[in-house]
Amino acid sequence: MSVALAANAPTSFEIKSANLPLVALLLKSADLTRLSAEFAQRFGDMPDFFDHDPMVIDLGPLQQAEPGAGTDFAALLALLRSYRLNPIAVRGGDDTQMAQAVDAGLTPAPDATLQRAAPAQSPEPIAPQPVAEPAAQPQPAPGALVIDKPLRSGQQVYARGRDLVVMAMVNPGAEVIADGHIHVYAPLRGKAIAGARGNGDARIFALSMAPELISIAGIYRTSEVPLPQSIQGKAAQVRLVPGPEGDKLVIDPMSL
C-alpha cells in the first residue's frame, strides 16, 4: 500500500537542474605570449565579439601536446577576461594543473563535454494527435542578416547567432563574420569567417571566390596559398571536413 507522507516545501526558493551554454577554450600550448598574439590576430579588431560568455578551459589538448606543462592561470584568466570572456571552469588537466586552476578560482568540471554542432535533420513522422488548445509558440531563431551595399576596406560585419547574406562585393580589406553560414552573391575579395563560435557545419558561398582569408570554426586559409584556377574567381563553396589528422577546409565549385 502506498503511503503519503506530509512534507514541508520551502516557499522562498527552488533548486532545479539547468543547462548552461559554454564557450570552450581547447588549450594547445602553455606559451601565453603566443596565445596572446593569436588572440589579438583573430579577435583584436573585434572588441565586441564575445559578450561575457561563460567559458570552460579544456586542458586535454595541452596534455597531449606538452605533457606536464605548467600554466600561469592568473595570466591566462586575465587575457581571456580582456576579450570579454568569463572563464568559470576547467577540465582535462593533471592533478597539479587542476589544483593550480582551482587556486586561480576555476571550478573543476570533469564531466563537461564538448561536441560538434549537429546538422539539422528532418523530423520523424508522428501519428496524428487530438487537436488541443493552441499553446504559446516559441520565438523563431533570428533570420539572416542581409547587407545590400558593398563593403569597403576596413569595414566589418558580424552576424551574431545567425547567417549572413551579402548582396554586393566584399572588397579587399573588408571582413564578414557569422556564427552560421555566409552567402556572398557577388565577388568575395576580403575576409570571410563562418562558424565563428565553433559551428563546424557552417559554410561559405560566393559567386566569385577570391578571398584574402576564409575560415570555418577556427580553421583558416589565407591568400598566401593561392586557390586552384578551377576555383579562383568562380562560384564556389567552402566547407569543413573532419579527418583522422584533423579538420580541413574543402572548396568545391558550384554549377549555376
In short:
With 256 residues, the chain is α/β, with parallel strands linked by helices. It is built from 4 helices and 15 strands.
Query: What is the count of structural domains?
Result: 2
The sequence of SSEs as H and E is EHEHHEHEEEEEEEEEEEE
**CATH fold category name of the largest domain:** Pectate Lyase C-like
Hey, roughly how much beta strand do the residues contain? 25-35%
The poorly predicted ranges are 117-123
Sequence of strands across the biggest β-sheet: 5-7-9-11-14-15
Radius of gyration: 23 Å
Please state the average pLDDT score: 83
Largest sheet: 6 strands, mixed
Can you describe this structure?
The chain is of the alpha/beta class. The protein folds into 2 domains: 23-108, ACT domain (Alpha-Beta Plaits, 2-Layer Sandwich); 145-253, Pectate Lyase C-like. Helices cover 14% and strands 27% of the residues. It is built from 4 helices and 15 strands. The strands form 3 sheets. The chain has a 6-stranded mixed beta sheet with strand order 5-7-9-11-14-15, with no helix packed on it. A 5-stranded mixed beta sheet has the order 6-8-10-12-13, with no helix packed on it. Strand 14 and strand 15 form a beta hairpin. The longest helix is centred in the N-terminal third of the chain and has 12 residues, at 32-43. Keywords: Cell cycle, Cell division, Septation.
Q: Topology, pairings included?
A:
Layout: E1 23-26, H1 32-43, E2 53-58, H2 60-65, H3 73-82, E3 85-91, H4 95-103, E4 107-108, E5 145-147, E6 156-159, E7 164-166, E8 175-178, E9 182-188, E10 191-194, E11 204-209, E12 213-216, E13 219-222, E14 236-241, E15 248-253
